[in-house]
Model the fold of this input.
Amino acid sequence: METVQSGISLVTALQCPVCGKIYDMHVQQTYATCCQQPLFAQYTPHLDKQLLSGRTPSLWRYRELLPVLDARNIVSLGEGWTPLLPLTAVSRRTGVSVSLKDESRNPTGSFKARGISVAVSKAKELGIKHCIMPSAGNAGGALSAYCARAGIRATVIMPELTPKTLQEECRMYGATLILVPGLLDACGLLARQLAEQTGGFDMSTLKEPYRLEGKKTMGYEIAEQRNWKLPDVIIYPTGGGTGLIGMWKAFREMQQLGWIEGPLPRMVIVQTENCAPMIQLFKLGKIAEEFRAIRTRAFGLAVPNPFAKDMMQEVLQQSDGTALTVTEEELEAGMEEIATAEGLLLCPEGSATYMGLKKLIEKAWVHPGEEILLFNTGSWFKYC
Ligand SMILES: Cc1ncc(COP(=O)(O)O)c(C=O)c1O
Done:
């Protein structure tokens, strides 16, 4: 075992967020099997935010609030600290103040780099030699890249209809790629079986605790880049929900640290009509037994049965948020509108947040003068 340097991370425990049961953070954990929920890393809530000034422009600037104990285990390609861009033409047209967190600037072209950088760093620290992951596309590319850099073996399982660029990306980084018919749930099943057979570690969304920690840094960045004042509304393109739950965790942590004050943003889940289990849950109180998803261009949102659905529902309730869908045609229209109006190419998931905003304005759920944050979670170029 490598020597552990002290003072880098303020992590104290891994805990079930429902019943509070503590799990040993010095061995690899999956999820809170006691309550069938994701595990939450807990931190000592004492850190002066002035320490951040002048630090590296990557998510590792928040290293005390991340779980890696020894800095030598950090596997980084320069992820995080993505720009927060005002959408001036959209703001003028809509009368609300709209900005966009452009996550396409991350290594491997998507926000998946955040969660995977932290999870692979922690896997390295815990001596894991083989990571296995089901992926709709972007996470698989990120896992392949970070495992290549860490010297860890990677196996990625993707739906066979995933765009060729994303498949090729995994192969280029030297990962083993397995294609299966169907959507992400079919890939998840195979990942579990493979992990049992090979002893590899299953990195499925929220079934290991540290991708969430990486994604939560979006919440820290939004606060820091806005001078510690959060927007009124955040519209997030939601699949497995790591980003939504992660940002909410970050906001709660920052409240405890005394870094932010005042009301938290109203959180909005956007999905596509072809796969909208969270909208069913939000509107009807449950996801129908016979729920079936259809393929969508926004493949990152095609998660028919998200493991953390209850926790996402809780975020909507606690934040006074909402959930809504957009159509495949609206995704296309949104990409064109933002490209011509703002000079930005959005991925279909990013476009969903913009089209979601238009619907919320129509419904008067968003009010004139409010500050709205949209997300572009990936690069348009990966979808060609
Ligand atoms: C581009 C893109 N946006 C959004 C999502 C959904 O992310 P989350 O798991 O945080 O809900 C994904 C997940 O694959 C994605 O690739």
